[in-house]
Structure formats: structure tokens, C-alpha cells
Amino acid sequence: MIFIEDERIKLNGVVLPGLVKSIEVTETAKVDEQEVEGSASKPKQAAGYEDAKVNIELLIDDTESQTKYERYALLREIFRKPGQNVPEPIPIVCEDTAAHGVEKVIFKKLTHKGENKKSQLTANLELWEYIPQTITAVSSSGGSSSSGSSKRSKTSSGSAAQSSSASLNANYQKYLRSKRGKSPAADNFDAAPALRKIARLPY
To answer: Which pTM does this prediction carry?
Structure first.
């Protein structure tokens, strides 16, 4: 069935061009299947819901003021504006999507197909439901306090180590400048016995 072109569907505040050939809204539940050894059946575990998917098929013809390609360019402008690098959530106004509680979507995919025997384009829009995720940051005063005290203890330890090193270096320099004496082996050294042994050696 082909609907009469009107303002039934607005995407990002823009009325979609052409005739709406079909619109399909799909909601899916998340179900995990588990493998059980020795059992042919797979136990299933419900895990939530997938975002709804919306597929719209349009037939775009030439008009008195615009060609079908100029009208298709309007869809391209909604899908990706010049300079846009990341898709943005956009509002959708449509009875079919409202029936599923879909208010914002991500324009996931845009395709068109032209046929030689027809003077029109078939455009397909794939939209994914957008549900903003709220992330709550939990701050722990104890953790912050612990982290702060840890930094302070490191700073304190570093200062103590530097002070100890400076004191040790100063004492060592003082020791080097003092009269430290001679080695006991050097003080008691007498060359006479060694010379007498050398004199008794046979030549």
C-alpha cells in the first residue's frame, strides 16, 4: 500500500520527501542461550531489550520544482550534514514510531535504488532508537582522603631522605679533610729484614 504524501513523518523537523511505501518498527528482547553438555536444548536467560529498529521505504519522483535527485539530497542532508563526522541523535515524529515509544533515533543507514524503466528512486532509511545513558559518578571522600594522605606521606619521606643525605655528605666531607693517620701496616714497615734475606741469597 502506498500512502499519500503528507506530513505524517518528520525526521529532525523535516518532512520526508516522496511517498511512504512502507514503514516497519521492530522491538527485540535480549535472550542469552547457554550450552549444556549432554543436553540438546539450550537454556535461555532473558537479558533485557534491544533498541528498536525503524525501516522506512520511500518512492521519490520528480516534481515541477525539483528533480528526484534534488529531493533525495534532502535525505542526505538529514543523514549527514557537510562537515559532520559523527551521527547525532535526532527527533522523529511519526504515529508508527510513537506507538513503540520511540522519540529519538540515530540515522544508521541510507540507501537508494534507481531502475531504468521507472522515473523514480526507491530510498531506504534505517533508523535505530536512541536512549540516552545516564552515568552517575560516585565520589568517595574516604578514597580521596586516603589518596591525599598517601601523597603527603611520599612528600614527607622524600624530604627526610634528602635531609639525611645532605647531613651524611657534610659529615663525610669533614672526615676527608681531617688528619686520618696512616695504615698500621705502613707505620710498622721495616725494610732491614728484607734486605738481609736478599743478601743471603746465592748468586
So the answer is: 0.60
